[in-house]
Amino acid sequence: MMPLLEIDNLQVGFDTEAGLLRAVDGVSMSVAAGQTLGLVGESGCGKSVTAASVLRLVPSPPGVMLGGAIRFDGQDILKLPRDALQQLRGREIAMVFQDPMTSLNPVFTIERQLWEVLSLRFGLDRAAARQRAAEMLRTVGIADPEARLAVYPHELSGGMKQRVMIAMALLCEPRLLIADEPTTALDVTVQAQILHLMRELQRKTGTALLFITHDMGVIAEMCDAVVVMYAGRVVERRPVVELFEAPRHPYTRGLLDSIPRKGVAHKAELPTIEGTVPSLLHPPPGCRFADRCRHHAALDVVSQRRCREQDPVLRADGSGDGEGWVACHFPLAASVGGGT
């Protein structure tokens, strides 16, 4: 399957008073048309910076594109002139941000904000834009959409604001939708409704979806394949079922072990990944996860030295019909189960 979006060795840094912070350091991934790719990892691992880079939304300064390519349908987004980039944003690629309250303009009504999108992209007049906006609000499950068009963002609940953001993103029927933790601030019931809505809309439109989250339960429910990031790098990629059944990277194993499981009584505290993510200003040599890796601690001295001195390369591990990749010198055995 040909990829719609290809990210190839992307490197993004931020100039700080303490030096250059490499937030994204050699990240590669791809998303095919109609596919849902999950991007998961701890806060600060580079997920949102990777997503923002796709639409060139990383502020510069302090952000700096250090290298790599981002290809959408064969054209390198990082080389597009400003006019061509503006045509791509919203029309071909849309984004749903984590916090709808800071994404919606508080001084304009919902109608005004949806109308601006339709006017800019399709040249619709006010009456036609209002009809189209009401139809889209109805599609995302907002009752009495005509009345909701007249309200301001602060008059809506968190779940309704997020539905408005999804409606705004889908107005132009984009071929790729990037969802950056779109359900983080929502209660469980509303989260389930939003996830169901996104699956249904994707099924109807065939939109590719890059879904960013730290919630492995959402990953299991939404995604076809998963990319796991740690300290600015990709450490594992594989089909979602295989990832949960047989993770190969110790970091992925640690994330899965920390999930409460239905029907399993936990007499003690859930396992955690001890330690903290290393500084991206001065990352350690070798594997960036070595200091926190329980698997590393069980290796012999020579193997431990290799982990600490040599960067592990992301490589195919022969599983999942060639779709499994891992960046670890000593990956876990494929027979080790994950479970959910």
List keywords for this structure.
single chain; 340 residues; alpha/beta; Rossmann fold; 2 domains; 4-stranded antiparallel beta sheet; 13 helices; 34% helix; disordered C terminus
Give a structural overview.
The chain has 340 residues and is α/β, with parallel strands linked by helices. The chain has two domains: 3-223, P-loop containing nucleotide triphosphate hydrolases (Rossmann fold, 3-Layer(aba) Sandwich), CATH 3.40.50; 247-261 and 273-326, no CATH class. 34% of the residues lie in helices and 23% in strands. The protein has helices spanning 47-54, 82-88, 100-103, 110-122, 126-139, 145-148, 158-170, 188-205, 216-222, 240-245, 250-257, 294-297, 301-309, and strands at 3-16, 19-32, 36-40, 63-72, 75-76, 93-96, 176-180, 208-213, 225-230, 233-239, 315-316, 325-326. An eight-stranded mixed beta sheet has the order 6-7-8-3-9-10-12-11, with helices on both faces. Strands 2-1-4-5 form a four-stranded antiparallel beta sheet, with helices on one face. β9 and β10 (233-239) form a beta hairpin. α4 (110-122) packs across α5, α5 crosses α7 (158-170) and α7 (158-170) packs parallel to α8 (188-205). The protein starts with a strand and ends in a 14-residue tail after the last strand.
